[in-house]
Specification:
By secondary structure, the chain is mainly alpha-helical. The protein has one domain. Helix content is 80%, strand content 0%. The protein is built from five helices and no strands. Helix 1 packs antiparallel against helix 2 and helix 2 crosses helix 3. The longest helix has 47 residues. The N and C termini lie close together (10 Å).
Length: 167
C-alpha cells in the first residue's frame, strides 16, 4: 500500500513537471511573438518620424521564472492530487484546479515581491489596475494558463482510462 502512494506521488510530480514545462514553453513563445509585433510597430512608428524614446523590452520568461513556474505546477499538482483526487473524479476539473492554484501562487509571489521591495502594495495594485497594458498582460496570462490546463487535462484524461483507481 505504501508503494502505491509513492507511485501516485511520483506520477503527480511528473505530470505537474511536464505541465509546467509545457505551459512555460507556450507562454515564452507567445511572449516572444508579442515582443516581435511590438518591435515591428516601433519600426513603423519610427518611419513616420522620430518618436523621442525607445522602449527596451526585457522578456519576462527567463530561466528563473520558468523554474518557479514549474515548481508552482509541481507543488499544486502534488497538493491537489493528494487532497482532491478522492473528491473530484474528473481529470479535466482536477487540472483546471491545478491551473487556478498556479495562478494563485503567482499572485501571492507578486504580492510578496511587492511587499519585500518596500513599495506600497496598495499603490502597486492600483497602478496595475489602472494601466490597461497590465490588465491585458494579467488577463492573457490567466487565459493562457487556464486554456493550457484544459488542453493538458483533456490529453491526460484521454491517454489514461483508469487515472484514479478505486481503493
Amino acid at each position: 500500500m505504501n508503494t502505491h502512494k509513492w507511485l501516485s506521488h511520483r506520477r503527480s510530480f511528473l505530470l505537474g513537471a511536464i505541465n509546467g514545462l509545457f505551459s512555460c514553453a507556450i507562454l515564452a513563445i507567445i511572449e516572444r511573438i508579442t515582443i516581435h509585433y511590438a518591435e515591428l510597430q516601433e519600426q513603423i512608428d519610427m518611419q513616420s518620424g522620430p518618436v523621442g524614446y525607445i522602449l527596451q523590452r526585457q522578456p519576462f520568461w527567463n530561466v528563473t521564472n520558468c523554474l518557479w513556474h514549474v515548481i508552482l505546477f509541481i507543488a499544486a499538482s502534488l497538493l491537489l492530487h493528494r487532497y482532491l483526487s478522492s473528491r473530484i473524479k474528473s481529470v479535466l476539473l482536477l487540472w483546471v484546479c491545478v491551473g487556478a492554484a498556479v495562478i494563485t501562487g503567482w499572485a501571492l509571489t507578486f504580492l510578496t515581491v511587492t511587499i519585500l521591495m518596500e513599495v506600497s502594495p496598495l499603490e502597486k495594485i492600483l497602478k496595475s489596475m489602472i494601466y490597461s497594458s497590465s490588465q491585458r498582460s494579467a488577463f492573457k496570462f490567466v487565459a493562457i494558463v487556464m486554456s493550457i490546463n484544459v488542453i493538458y487535462g483533456t490529453v491526460v484524461q484521454m491517454a489514461t482510462k483508469h487515472y484514479f483507481r478505486e481503493e
